[in-house]
Design a protein that fits this description.
Blueprint: H1 9-19, E1 26-30, E2 41-47, H2 48-52, E3 64-70, E4 73-79, H3 90-93, H4 95-103, E5 107-116, E6 126-135, H5 140-143, H6 146-149, E7 154-155, H7 159-174, E8 182-189, H8 197-205, E9 210-212, H9 216-222, E10 228-238, H10 248-271
Parallel strand pairs: 1-4, 1-5, 5-10, 6-8, 8-9
Antiparallel strand pairs: 2-3, 3-4, 5-9, 6-7, 6-10
Helix pairs in contact: 1-4, 4-9, 7-10
Length: 272
């Protein structure tokens, strides 16, 4: 974790307003190895350290905020995020999302690299998150996981979520290279280690389809605000009994392969 002190959301917004006179219509958070929305029109990039006062320490996160245009619309792309397993607290992990709300950005699209729990999934699939489970809240370090396990999955609905799902279906019907999007329940775990076989079995019993170490705090942060959120997982591996997982490098490779489809999905959504 960086030794620098994170800025307040008000300080972040002041910096961003100085960088862009126009509030973006969409902000996008990119997960590990997810490289999309490159070469935006009129783009300018700012390091996380400059914007948020702290930088991510995870491979696959470049740690920059790019402000530019897609089809004439101003967008802000955060290439990276903060995680609890880096040693950050709730305030820091949710700082970018809180800043987008305070800035008045109407739409926030979250992406992540996730492991597939659903055995019907394939590496490189895109999964639209329709529900989530919070198994990474810092409070659970005091209580254990039982309070989280006993709670039902939280449904996530929004206009932008429905729009992304519809666009995905249309792209799949018209473009042979665009796979039909999956949809399902995302489980957020603390990490940084990957899940044990016992944890995978538990998550399957809880009807989870994918697992990762982010996104849930951001969804919870914008809930009830004027900022609508949607979330998409890039399935970078699928947990089966006969497959040996390679680690973070495998995640980065699979995310790179799926990024072309995700780029098309996001650009179509922004332009529409």
């Amino acid at each position: 974790m960086s030794a620098h002190k994170p800025k307040s959301s008000t300080e972040v917004v002041a910096h961003l307003r100085n960088a862009s006179l126009v509030t973006p219509s969409v902000a996008i958070v990119l997960g590990s190895g997810v490289n999309v929305l490159e070469n935006l029109d009129d783009e300018k990039s700012y390091p996380f350290q400059e914007v948020f006062g702290v930088s991510p320490s995870v491979a696959g996160h470049s740690g920059s905020v790019t402000i530019g245009k897609v089809d004439g619309k101003v967008v802000a792309v955060m290439r990276g995020r903060f995680h609890f397993y880096e040693g950050h607290d709730w305030e820091t992990v949710t700082l970018p999302a809180r800043a987008m709300v305070e800035w008045g950005v109407p739409t926030l699209i979250l992406t992540n690299a996730a492991g597939g729990i659903n055995t019907e999934f394939r590496v490189g699939d895109l999964m639209h998150i329709t529900c989530y489970r919070d198994h990474l809240n810092p409070k659970l370090s005091e209580t254990g996981l039982m309070p989280a396990v006993s709670q039902p999955s939280q449904e996530h609905k929004s206009t932008i979520s429905s729009k992304l799902q519809q666009i995905g279906e249309e792209l799949a019907s018209k473009n042979g290279k665009f796979r039909q999007m999956r949809k399902g329940t995302y489980a957020g775990l603390l990490g940084p280690t990957y899940e044990t076989i016992a944890e995978i079995k538990m998550l399957r019993k809880l009807n989870c389809d994918a697992v990762g170490m982010s996104t849930v705090p951001e969804l919870q942060t914008v809930k009830g605000t004027k900022t609508e959120a949607a979330a998409v997982s890039v399935i970078t591996n699928v947990w089966t009994d006969d497959v040996v997982l390679e680690g973070h490098e495998e995640v980065l490779r699979a995310a790179k392969e799926a990024s072309e489809r995700l780029d098309l999905l996001l650009r179509t959504a922004i332009a529409s």
